[in-house]
Write a structure and sequence with these properties.
Belongs to the 'GDXG' lipolytic enzyme family. One of its GO terms (molecular function) is hydrolase activity. The chain is an alpha/beta fold and 491 residues long. 23% of the residues lie in helices and 30% in strands. The strands form 5 sheets. Strands 1-2-4-3-5-6-7-9 form an 8-stranded mixed sheet, sandwiched between helices. Strands 13, 14, 15, 16, 17, 20, 21 and 22 form an 8-stranded mixed sheet that branches. β21 and β22 form a beta hairpin.
């Protein structure tokens, strides 16, 4: 870290943030956990006279030759086994492998090194008692985690020598935060702001001396030899991104087998698995959209209001064909004459009254290059906040044209693990992890409404590149940001 952490955080903020994290994941868990094809078992592990809760996910037809211990992210302060329940649920089911999710204690109530000791000692206990967790005594054990959980996984691999592999999703490996990506992604649109990182740091650590403890900052370890094979999965638009690059380099230099899979176009916190829904989960009136393990319900466009062969004008002057859905309806709308852009805020339908999610689009005039708009917004954070809020918006009837798009980047985890010579670890399944050029999984915007009213509406025609954001509108928190620059194949 480049400066001293601020004073002890207000615990009310911690409580409220934890509550929000639980709320936004509750609906997803409620929907998917009952579909888990196996058993969930709650147990506790005694660590220094403290009972640490764990959840054991045992799928049907489980392979007893392997086991994965999972540590959730959340800056060692927020999130829990519950917020990450869906992720572990799906991974265990897909891999036919027992996954154990650990509820280590968190700051500010329990600062470093308590949460590190909890994670390490639970891992040690499981390693020494494999058979009691449903696998063979010779079973291979891997560690996995996202963000802070990835940091824990990496660190424990240095301490305990019987780990067979590690999966590190957008991890933080040097708490001093000195890599270039921390300066590159400071804008609130990238979610993990310097202020948020300072707050989490002050909540999780006692003082700045803790930040240079190699248990917390694994890049400060004196040696990286003889570590287990490592899969690193950073997010492209993440302040933590360069930590993964740096960690891969020191592992490579030490002769450790590594694989890097950069998920392009996504911000920190993105960790999702596609195809979680079967066709029976879809109804004629709604579609379920999964975005970072959150469901959103939105109305549908009428099928007869889709132009299937519309021109889309790309940045390079190329014209592609795309299906454009269109509808006349009232939306929150604004214009900015300095940027020459239109802004529309499309609400998601939600049964959860504690949060309000909005899909916001910023559409430049066709004569204005999207990268010019991006540069201006990046240099003027206040302007970005203004555009993303409902400030200066008015309710207008729009003739709204939107591309129906599903933007994904998919990789096969099983193939990657085989490249890391972990063929026996995951061999009989294909687990898909999806990212997207638009920083959201399976973004499908569809509406259903009455027949078209008389004209007089403002045209909002997204037939050329645009920016989009998924926000919690009450607090104007950006969950995802991205840009649509060209139609996907088979759009």
């Amino acid at each position: 870290m480049q400066s001293s952490p601020p004073a002890l955080t207000d615990e009310n903020r911690v409580i409220e943030t934890r509550k929000q994290a639980e709320v936004v994941h509750a609906k997803m868990n409620e929907k998917l956990i009952p579909t888990f094809k196996g058993t969930l078992q709650e147990q506790k592990v005694n660590v220094n006279s403290t009972e640490i809760p764990i959840t054991i996910y045992t799928p049907v037809d489980v392979n007893k030759t392997k086991l994965v211990i999972f540590f959730h992210g959340g800056g060692f302060t927020v999130c829990s086994r519950k917020t990450h329940q869906t992720i572990v649920n799906v991974l265990a089911d897909a891999t036919k492998t027992i996954w154990i999710s650990v509820e280590y204690r968190r700051g500010p109530e329990h600062k470093f090194p308590i949460w590190w000791e909890d994670a390490c000692e639970v891992t040690r206990h499981i390693l020494e008692n494999k058979e009691s967790y449903g696998v063979e005594s010779s079973a291979k054990v891997g560690l996995a985690g996202d963000s802070a959980g990835a940091a824990l996984s990496a660190s424990i691999c240095h301490t305990l020598k019987n780990i067979d592999f590690q999966i590190l999703v957008f991890g933080i490996f040097d708490m001093r935060r000195t890599t270039p990506s921390y300066k590159e992604f400071v804008h609130p649109m990238y979610f993990l702001t310097p202020e948020m990182l300072d707050w989490l740091t002050s909540s999780a650590f006692r003082d700045t001396n803790d930040l240079t403890d190699p248990r917390a900052s694994v890049l400060l370890k004196p040696s990286f030899e003889n570590l287990p094979p490592c899969l690193l999965i950073p997010a492209e638009l993440d302040p933590l991104r360069d930590d993964s690059y740096a960690y891969q380099k020191v592992l490579d230099d030490a002769g450790v087998k590594t694989k890097m899979v950069l998920i392009k176009g996504v911000i920190h916190g993105y960790f999702s698995v596609p195809d979680l829904l079967s066709i029976k989960d879809m109804t004629p009136e709604t579609r379920l959209i999964i975005i970072n393990s959150i469901y959103f319900k939105i109305k549908e466009f009428s099928k007869n209001l889709t132009n299937k062969n519309t021109n889309f004008h790309e940045v390079n002057g190329k014209i592609s064909k795309i299906a454009l859905m269109h509808q006349r309806e009232k939306f929150a709308y604004a214009e900015n004459n300095d940027l020459h852009v239109q802004i529309v805020h499309i609400p998601y339908k939600s049964e959860n009254k504690d949060v309000e999610f909005v899909f916001t689009m910023i559409l430049p005039n066709r004569r204005v290059q999207l990268d010019v708009v991006e540069q201006k917004l990046a240099s003027q954070p206040d302007l970005m906040q203004k555009l993303l809020s409902h400030q200066n918006t008015r309710t207008e009837e729009l003739h709204l044209y939107l591309p129906k798009f599903k933007m994904e980047t998919t990789f096969e985890l099983s193939d990657i693990l085989q490249q890391l010579e972990m063929k026996d670890t995951f061999s009989s399944y294909k687990a898909h992890f999806t990212g997207s050029e638009a920083a959201a999984t399976a973004v499908i915007i569809t509406y259903h409404g009455p027949s078209l009213p008389p004209p007089q509406s403002i045209e909002f025609k997204a037939d050329h590149p645009f920016l989009f954001f998924i926000r919690e509108s009450r607090q104007n928190i950006v969950l995802f940001s991205g840009k649509f620059i060209s139609p996907p194949i088979n759009s």
